[in-house]
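#structure-requests
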Amino acid sequence: MWKEFKAFIMRGNVVELAVGIVIGASFTAIVTAFVDNIITPIIVALSGNANVGQLTFKIGEATLKYGLFLQAVIDFLIVAVVLFILIKVINQLARKEEAEPEPEVKAPTVESYLAEIRDLLAEQSDASTKESETDIR
C-alpha cells in the first residue's frame, strides 16, 4: 500500500497540482496586500470612509454593507486579469514552439541518385575527351 501511495504522490499531475496550490496561495497573499495597501486607500480617499470594509448603503431602515464585497471583487478581478495574461503568454510561447518545426531533410529519391550518376558520367566523359584531344596534338 505504501508503494502505491508513493507512486500516486510522485505522479507528475499530483506534484504539479501541489505546486500550483502553494503558488496560488502565495499569489493570493500578494494580491490581498496590493488591494489592502494600494487600492483600498484610493477607495477610502474617494469615498471619505476610513475603512472600505465599513462602506454601507442605506435603503430605508435596511443597511447594505457592500465594502467587504467590493474588496473581494477587486481581489478576484486582479487575480483573474493576472491569470489571463499569464495563460495568454504561455499559450503564445507554446504556439511559437509549434510554429518552428525542425527543417525536414528529404530522403534522396531514385531519380536524384540517377541524375547524380548521369552528371558524374558526363563529367568523366568530358574529362576523358579533353585528355584524348591533348594527346593527339
